[in-house]
UniProtKB/TrEMBL annotation:
Protein name: Glycosyl hydrolase
GO molecular function terms attached to this record: hydrolase activity
Organism: Streptomyces incarnatus
Keywords: Hydrolase
Highest taxon, organism lineage: Bacteria
Chain segments carrying region Disordered: 331-352
Amino acid sequence: MRFGVNYTPSEGWFHHWLDFDLDSVRADLDAVAALGLDHIRVFPLWPYFQPNRTLIRPRAVEQLVALADAAAERGLDVHVDGLQGHLSSFDFLPAWTRTWHRRNLFTDPDVTEGQAAYLRTLAAALADRPGFLGMTVGNEVNQFAAGPHPDPDRITADEAERWLRRMLAACAEGAPGRLHLHASYDAAWYQDDQPFTPGHSARLGDLTAVHSWVFNGTAQRHGRTSVPAEHHAAYLVELSKAWAGEPYRPVWLQEVGAPAPLVPAEHAAAFAEATIRNALDCPDLWGITWWCSHDVSRDLADFPQLEYGLGVFTNDRAPKDIARVLAEAARRPHASPAPRTTALAVPGDPGHRSRCAPGGPVFDAFFRLVADGARPTTVLDTRAADKDHLAARGITEVVTPDQVLPTPHGGTRS
């Protein structure tokens, strides 16, 4: 069981790559390692590393390797996201893909060749580092492919799959045998017209990544102490299993955080404790990586307010109460959870995945089951009668959303 943080530098945020200070990075990582965590997720900013399609800056790559080495010296493994892409409401796309050079990020042959070369280069530079876990293609790159992005590069689901397979192959060419995956924000699970589908997330790459944020309507509808809010991360972990090709495919809770004001700062630790406890009750969970390590400095302008206070450390590296929660979770032994024997049937057609979103019948039924003491998982409606599939997953009962009736306890903490 892995516990880590998404590394947000205390000085300069991700713009620190422009003024890279290894001593500052080391001080940040000292604080992370002192919690007893075992890994960080790292974000090179794509335009800073590949400002021209045929220029991948050697000095930037050297700095990424130096960061990985500094982490290893402190007992921290490193997983690297390549195509940033999108972070904390800002897009980071190189000029050779925008405005006068506007080309589709996912289908233009020159762009995709440049992307593949970039991912291959980063992976190869890190391949011999013992603490290097692998590559994530990019952070929530699916947000560029559909609304609500204001200027999407629209593609079909087949085009999304071809792009993902090529990018994952590039990572594997650079660093064979490492954990390579891709990461979508929750539109992949909830939005009917999102071309990056649940099947892509659950079947492509070496493990499934889910990103859990309760500002998606969950906390607004139900409140921060509700069953849906405190079990939302566990829900996404279990929802992903409906589409997995293998019964025991590992799932990484790669991003999860406590966003204010929906989760006020004084309640962040309690929210984290509940979220982690409930996620740990999911079989086949690979790890939990909290967003994020350090707060965004108030000296930096124009971030959404919730982004400034998500760190487990302040800007001067002082631990918050949430740091204690992570440290305690990392120290405790964790037994493998028992199989979840009750499965809720979910639509196999990705054109109906909004039924799984907050306010949808699958979402509501899942949390009614949880509130009444069940430990549900999910299964595609197209597999609900497949006895071999159910047996392989330890499922003994399948229910549909309309069979899960409201109860006096449904939707609130029991």
